[in-house]
Amino acid sequence: MFDMGGTLEDLYFDESNIRRTAHALYEILKKRGISVPYGEEELWGRVYPEILRYKDEAEVTLMELKPEQIWADYGFKNVPVDRDKLVAASEEIAHMWEVTYFDRSLRKNADSMLKGLKELGLYVAAVSNTASLFQVFDTLEGYGVRQYFDDVTLSSIVGYRKPHPYIFEVALHQAQLRPEECAFVGDTVSRDVVGPRKMGYARVFKINSMLTPFKDKGSYDGFAPDYEMTDIYDVYRILKEERQNG
């Protein structure tokens, strides 16, 4: 089971991402006929802090709201807007945010690694924190690797964010597997090591990303991956060796 952003995907972010996201948000509103009494910059100044507030709260509660709740109750809380139109546009906004706020690309060797795992006959799944209902599915399709995945479990659908045990439990139920039969691969100790370790996953892999130092600011004594790597292809190589060695 794999995390998405930072694990299967490389992420990149700088100030230009913020400007592009602000512009894309404004363009969606215009396209959808959603009137706001502000220009692009002022609108962003009202929406962005509220989205950051939601994200901070979600990191504490480990609950993921639906896109219509995030954008109507948080993002546009301080903006007079037609709520019904905003709700109808909320998934489009959420999807745009996920692919614009970060530049994303499939991590080097991820394709061949996934192909190798399937050739071993292994069950492969993604378990991702995301505020969009469909973006992960579309992104995997766009990378040309969707066929390798038996299942995808998203916080936006199940309502719980990693490392909450329920998102992992949903993934296990969908797989019809016990945790001791599974391995998890992620880029953060706080989400992708702590969660699977508490659930009793047999193997935990960690690979660093740009998010790692921002998400792993706490102390995680007693929680360590079995393997740390720089090349995601090592997941295939290690699991193949373990299978050969019984």
Characterize the structure shown.
The chain is mainly α. Helix content is 51%, strand content 11%. The chain has helices at 15-31, 40-61, 67-75, 83-100, 110-119, 135-143, 155-158, 165-175, 189-192, 194-199, 212-215, 233-244, and strands at 9-12, 103-106, 125-128, 151-154, 183-186, 203-207, 227-229. It has a three-stranded parallel β-sheet with strand order 5-6-7. It has a two-stranded antiparallel sheet with strand order 1-2. Strands 3-4 form a two-stranded parallel sheet. Helix 6 (135-143) links the parallel strand 3 and strand 4. Helix 2 crosses helix 3, helix 3 (67-75) crosses helix 4 and helix 5 (110-119) runs parallel beside helix 12 (233-244). It is elongated, with a radius of gyration of 19 Å. The model has no long low-confidence stretch (mean pLDDT 97).
Keywords:
246 residues; mainly alpha; three-stranded parallel sheet; 12 helices; 51% helix
In short:
The protein is mostly helical and 246 residues long. The protein is built from twelve helices and seven strands.
Between the first and last Cα atoms, what is the distance in angstroms? 20 Å
Write out the strand line-up for the largest beta sheet, numbering strands in chain order.
5-6-7
- Count of strand segments: 7
The amount of beta strand, in percent, is 5-15%
Could you give the order of the helices and strands? EHHHHEHEHEHHEHHEHEH
Number of helices: 12
Largest sheet: 3 strands, parallel
Mean pLDDT: 97
**Overall helicity:** 40-55%
Q: In terms of structural class, how would the helical and strand content be classed?
A: mainly alpha
C-alpha Rg (nearest Å): 19 Å
Low-confidence stretches: none
Which descriptor suits the 3D outline? elongated
